[in-house]
Amino acid sequence: MSDSADLKKAGLKATLPRIKILSILEAAKVRHMTAEDVYKALLETGEEVGLATVYRVLTQFEAAGLVIRHNFEGGRSVFEINQGSHHDHVVCVECGEVFEFYDPAIEERQRKVAESLGFDVDSHSLYMYGMCLGMKRHGHCSKKDGH
Amino acid sequence: MSDSADLKKAGLKATLPRIKILSILEAAKVRHMTAEDVYKALLETGEEVGLATVYRVLTQFEAAGLVIRHNFEGGRSVFEINQGSHHDHVVCVECGEVFEFYDPAIEERQRKVAESLGFDVDSHSLYMYGMCLGMKRHGHCSKKDGH
DNA sequence: GTGTAAACTAGAATCATTCCCATGCAAAAG
DNA sequence: CTTTTGCATGGGAATGATTCTAGTTTACAC
């Protein structure tokens, strides 16, 4: 399978936990998952994987560029598969839904600001928090239930 | 003093811990402080304030709009006095220095994106992480020592 | 001044995450 | 295809940040 090859390409041994975690992230209906979410998904598939391993592997995946870690409000990290295309995030604080967007003008202005400061940017993140349309209109989200 | 008045205006009793914490945040040479930083600064002034109180008060200040909480990389919250003027942040991962900037074009594009999604934005944050000029040039930051 | 609700302190508890180390397993070598 | 070798894993303990709890103190209205 290709997950195994992807891991090797990233310089990581193709172990069972890593393959499983990668496939869960790829197949996830909800793209943005906490370590706990991934752990629960593993348990549901009947895998015997420790929570410590999930954290360790997600951190390795982040270092290898396979996943992106986000520090949203709330103090826990969420992860999403890195599909190569950078995008920013809009988070509904009511239902937890995460919307993605990309705005070339914003990216360009950010680049200019960093340049003017003589700053080498490794990564950047733009998050907007608020209430989504579904919550405003119907008191529940159009895509999923409130947490 | 005006700190006491500011607190009452925000609907908070003017207690000693609150007054002290507010004045520390206002007088801070380094604008962005963790709860631990604030706690240590209190101890240095000889105040007997519990760490739990610092966390509670900072959260109340955030709810009252007196301070802004940031969730930078690293998992701990940092706080800064809310001086009314929104700005975004550039964080040097080498020396910890935080630079602030404001770009009206970015703000406008964000507003448009939210509008197109029908999203009511409560707050938004834009962080860039990387290496500052001082670290690149001299191996140390121009403004302060590495952490 | 006095009463009362709100706020405080210290320490225990909780939550997310990481560490530790004996055992397991993937990839390289034979 | 077996052995070797070392990185990876699992589970529980440890850590660090933050929050809760209980009993005590304090700000402020009357």
Could you explain how this protein is built, in words?
The structure is a homodimer of 147-residue chains. The first copy, chain A, has 147 residues and is of the alpha+beta class. Chain A folds into 2 domains: 1-83, Winged helix-like DNA-binding domain superfamily/Winged helix DNA-binding domain (Arc Repressor Mutant, subunit A, Orthogonal Bundle), CATH 1.10.10.10; 85-147, Dna Ligase, domain 1. In chain A, 44% of the residues lie in helices and 21% in strands. Chain A has helices spanning 2-9, 16-27, 35-44, 51-64, 104-117, 133-138, and strands at 33-34, 67-70, 78-81, 88-92, 98-101, 120-131. In chain A, the strands form 2 sheets. In chain A, strands 1-3-2 form a 3-stranded antiparallel sheet. Chain A has a 3-stranded mixed sheet with strand order 5-4-6. In chain A, α3 (35-44) crosses α4. Chain A is globular. The interface between A and B is medium-sized, with 35 and 35 residues. β6 of chain A pairs antiparallel with β6 (120-131) of chain B. The first copy, chain A, binds a DNA duplex (30 and 30 nucleotides) through α2 and α4.
The CATH superfamily title of the largest domain in chain A: Winged helix-like DNA-binding domain superfamily/Winged helix DNA-binding domain
What structural class do helix, strand and pairing data of chain A support? alpha+beta
> What is the rounded distance between the termini of chain A?
34 Å
Please write the CATH class name of the largest domain in chain A: Mainly Alpha
Number of helices, where a helix is a run of at least 4 consecutive DSSP H or I residues of chain A: 6
Helix proportion of chain A = 40-55%
Percentage of residues in strands of chain A: 15-25%
Main sheet specs of chain A: 3 strands, antiparallel
Q: And the CATH topology of the largest domain in chain A?
A: Arc Repressor Mutant, subunit A
